[in-house]
Specification:
mainly beta, 4% helix
Length: 102
């Protein structure tokens, strides 16, 4: 588990399939392009429990993954910007009108 007052975490270009043990102090999570071109196990597919772990995230960037569901986004109570470019999300209508979706 990450310890301390970490507010920004950048995990780009890795083979991350699931995000766990995030610090509650996190405000920005950038986890772009974490999919293996040939192994479908290593792909972020959902927002899931990110909001339960780090509910105060203001900026979440999951560009270039395989996110197809926004389930769990309602737990991100401080979310201001959600970046989902190059993912499989079809509808963002369930989001609060104040959240910027890119």
């Amino acid at each position: 588990m990450l310890r301390g007052n970490i507010t920004d975490l950048h995990l780009d270009n890795n083979l991350i399939a699931q995000i766990a043990n995030l610090p509650r102090t996190l405000r920005t999570l950038q986890c772009k392009h974490n999919k293996h071109p040939f192994n479908f196990t290593f792909r972020i597919k959902e927002i899931g429990n990110i909001g339960c772990q780090a509910p105060y995230i203001e900026v979440l960037d999951l560009t270039g993954n395989d996110v197809s569901s926004l389930d769990g986004v309602e737990n991100l109570i401080c979310l201001d910007t959600l970046i989902l470019r190059a993912n499989k999300v079809c509808a963002v209508s369930e989001l609060d009108a104040e959240v910027k979706v890119l």
